[in-house]
Each structure stands twice: as structure tokens, then as C-alpha cells.
């Protein structure tokens, strides 16, 4: 088990000055991992770590002799643009990288001269989906989201009786997962019309969903469930995830098999994977309130009860085309906290996913489901914030929204903070809606 160590020390500062700014998402205590290349170049994407407004080129750092041998071997085993071989190694190698970089990037480090040439400005790079994602599963752990969306879709039966026993999920699609900066065309399809005869056209109720995505590190062999006591060892780290949703397509198509074309046209993730180690100081007890069903034994465990939850602030911001043209920044629509929103922990999602023998693989992505807070203004989707499209949201520039318009950019943000520790951020997860593509005749 990994616990807080000197890499979390709040007094640590870096010789990369921008990493010491109080508002940075990427202080020396974070060290998230992503895939980058110089903007506009045709070179392969390579592994990097964000520090302040810079990226440490990890292969260059390996050549400079700054990283331990097992870390270097795992990084060199990665195919271009694919972190999977590194992810497969598990916690030991990941902690080795964290400790080595924490030492080398510290103020006063003797390795500064060797590491300095391995830095590239974030403003000069482009980022990619960090690994090959063979499997993507989206859970439904946000109980406030499940209850309010359930009321809209099924007024008599909002929260199904299985909800408090089974971490509900569905298998999503990997081909349309993109990284922050992704833009996508408004989907079109079948929309429920009068008398159960559908209309065809562009989605009129386009929405976002505020989620976290957990990347799997080491996988499990087919037929061998991961017990709760080992589940955390299979988690690599977290990103933000926007599960763009076409609510009108969804309402018509979802019964009986669940989401299909309403959710597979685009999914946007943030580029930097914040490791489980960086989040260590923000673990929180997982408590089931009095009177709630206790998890079945295969979803229960001492470590999960003690520290299965995560204290993470989540936010949704919107920048409309008019705001952009007027030079106005995005505006915050809501905030929630993962520990108040999720009915199941990451470890429970992972253990449940494998209990039937299903094999997870390094680089698989588990979406948490929409993380709405307990009060109505904490909805993690427009569907909730506008009561199903019935109450317009008024923006500070005078515009209104029920659902997304073409040109809208949605930005998800997250950070963890706690007295005595540095604030850890995730960077932006931004995506923009483009107009629907007319069908060719
Ligand atoms: O049928 C329903 O109740 C709703 C299903 C979903 O919206 C699926 C989903 O993406 C769940 C989530 O993000 O929490
Ligand atoms: Ca979702
Ligand atoms: Mg999606």
C-alpha cells in the first residue's frame, strides 16, 4: 500500500518557477502523465509529465540519466503514442518515476542542469489521448444524477431497485474518444415524434456530462476477478471525462438496451493523467448512511471503508461563441464534489467489472457517470440544470441556454485541496460543438 510521503510535502518548490505559482494545476506535488509532441510537427507522440507551464520529455530525461532503470525500460517499451506498456507495470514503476522527478525538479537539485534541456513549454506542444483504449465502460455512480434523470425519463420509477446493490454501467465506444480541444459535429438521428413515430434531424437537446475517467494500470487475466483488497493496485490515475449526450436521441432509443447513438459520437477527456499517488492526501472514508443497504461482501473491504472515496472538487464552465467573440472567458455553471456525488468508489467499480471474470486491460477507461451534487444547482448536465429543458439558464452576458448551441465550448475542471497540502489540478477538459453535417443527397 502507498501512503503520503515526502513527494507530497507542501513546502517543496521547484526550479521550474511556474510550478510554484499558487494557482497552477501542476505543482511539483502533482506530476501528471500525458502524451505530447511539438505543435505542428509530424513526430510521434511521446510520454511527458506536466510541471507548471512546462512538459518534461520523459524519453529525453531517460537519455539524460535522470530516471531509474526500471522506469526507463517501461518507457522505452511503449509504442509511439501509447503509454500502455508503462501503465501495465503498476504502482512500483509509477512511484519510481514520481520520486525521481520530485527529486530532480526540486529547488536546488544537482540534476537541474541535466533536466533543464528536457523541458518543452506547454504552449508549444499538442497533446493526445495518452494510450490505446481497448475498452471503455461508463458507470452511473452519481446517485443525485441517477435520481433526477430517472425522474425525467421514468417519473414513476426514478431510481431502479438494483441501484443500491449493483454499480450500474454500460459498455461505451472507444473510437470517438478525443482529448481536450476536441470539436465534433452535432449528431443527428431519430427523435421521438407524435404517436410513437420518430422524426429525423439534428439533435435539439445536446448536453454534456461531468465525469471522471479512471485509467486501468495492470489488467487481470480472463476468468480471474480482482478482489476488493487488490482493486486499488489496478488503478493508474484519473482524468476528467465529458460524455456528450444527445438527450432526444437517448429518450427514444434507450429502452430496452440502454445508451447507443445518443452517447457514442464524442467523448472528451483531459490530457494529463493525475496519478493515484498524487491524489493520496485527498482520500476520504467511504461511508454508507444509516439505513442504506451495505455492499455485498465482494464490494466491501477495510481499505475501501477507510479511504475508498476521494475529496475532489468538480466544475463545469461554458463559453459560448458570443462570449468568445467578445473576448469574455468561460463562465462557471456548477460545482460538485466527487465524495458527495458518487454512490460507489473507484475500487468497487473495478472489482464489480471483473467479478464475472471479465478481463480489464492496461489503458482501459472507466467513466464514473455524471457527478451531480445533492442540490439542484449542482447538476452535472444541462438536463438537470434546466429541469429537463423547462427552465432556461441565464448567462451573465444576457444569453440563455436550455441545451447546447453550435459554437459552445464546454470546459470541465477539477482540483483537490486540503489544508497543509498543495492544490492539485487536472487541467482543462474542453470540447466544442460544430454544426451538424447535412446528409449528402
Ligand atoms: O436511463 C437512464 O436513467 C440514464 C442513463 C444514462 O444517462 C447513462 C449515463 O451516461 C450515466 C451517467 O453518466 O451517469
Ligand atoms: Ca455518462
Ligand atoms: Mg460518450
From TrEMBL:
Positions of the Fumarylacetoacetase-like C-terminal domain: 144-433
Protein name according to UniProt: fumarylacetoacetase
Active-site residues annotated for this sequence: 145
Single GO term (MF): fumarylacetoacetase activity
Pathway(s) per entry: Amino-acid degradation; L-phenylalanine degradation; acetoacetate and fumarate from L-phenylalanine: step 6/6
Residues binding Mg(2+), per UniProt: 243, 263, 267
Binding site for substrate: 140, 154, 250, 254, 370
UniProt enzyme class: hydrolase
Record-level GO BP terms: homogentisate catabolic process; L-phenylalanine catabolic process; L-tyrosine catabolic process
InterPro entries hit by this protein: Fumarylacetoacetase, Fumarylacetoacetase-like_C, Fumarylacetoacetase_C_sf, Fumarylacetoacetase_N, Fumarylacetoacetase_N_sf
Amino-acid positions noted as binding Ca(2+) in the UniProt annotation, renumbered to this chain: 138, 209, 211, 243
Keywords: Calcium, Hydrolase, Magnesium, Metal-binding, Phenylalanine catabolism, Tyrosine catabolism
EC number(s) recorded for this UniProt protein: 3.7.1.2
Co-factor(s): Ca(2+); Mg(2+)
Domain Fumarylacetoacetase N-terminal: 29-130
Family annotation (Pfam families): FAA_hydrolase, FAA_hydrolase_N
